[in-house]
Amino acid sequence: MENATYTTLTRQSGLMREMQIVANNIANAATTGFRQEGLMFGEYVKKVDGEPSISMATGNLRMTSMMQGGLTQTGGQFDFGIEGDGFFLIETPQGERLTRNGSFSPSAEGDLVTNDGFRVLDAGGAPIFIPPDATDLSVAADGTVSSNGKPLAQLGIVMPVEPTKMVREDGVMFAAEEGYEPAQNPTVLQGFLESSNVDPVGQIARMIEVQRAYEMGQSFLDAEDERMRNALKTFLR
């Protein structure tokens, strides 16, 4: 296989991965707390003796957009939205995870949990307990949960140490591979949920661009394959 074919194949594989990411973004345009994802391409250039340099393009680095999504008022007592930086800290069987989806509710045991049943953690990493007799529940801007004016707990609002190294899990959850730290001056709004930060129009436009680029690469591969077949036929005559 010639160098031109190798370089085109690496580009095609990257475009295929980007197409999958863009399609996933569009599918989650209405998912609460979803963070748009993108793909970054890198280039590897190698000098070849007696020939032009070879340039190989790879698309392996995923990037998560930290842009604020729109805040929608729900009026729900256990619906929380973060304005600005920060993620809610939750407990899963795989360990602590971060999310912007603040749609919570008390479990039968009284723990504040996500829609998937994962416990929400406080600033110290402990589960948040909501007493069954708690009334007039309110949440301050710093995440302090109170009942009748008496503090119960404080929502754990954190930031990953290395945001670019977060690993997406299950759509709206992230694993902070490099750890996390308390968010600086977070603003928590009760009765609000953050919408997806996906730009549907921009993503559809990007999907068309990626599709055209992929088709162009495929046309080149088809033409190259035909050229090699004709060369072999001529050689074997």
Topology (SSEs and partners):
Elements lengths: L2 H25 L9 E12 L2 E14 L6 E3 L6 E4 L3 E6 L2 E5 L4 E3 L5 E3 L4 E2 L16 E3 L4 E4 L2 E5 L2 E4 L5 E4 L3 E4 L3 E3 L4 E4 L1 E3 L5 H37 L1
Antiparallel strand pairs: 1-2, 3-18, 4-17, 5-6, 5-9, 5-13, 6-15, 7-8, 10-11, 11-12, 13-16, 14-15
Written account of the structure:
By secondary structure, the chain is an alpha+beta fold. Helices cover 26% and strands 36% of the residues. The protein is built from 2 helices and 18 strands. The strands form 6 sheets. Strands 5, 6, 9, 13, 14, 15 and 16 form a 7-stranded antiparallel sheet that branches. α1 packs antiparallel against α2 (200-236). The relative contact order is 0.20.
Task: Sum this structure up briefly.
This protein has 237 residues and is α+β, with helices and mostly antiparallel strands. It contains two helices and 18 strands.
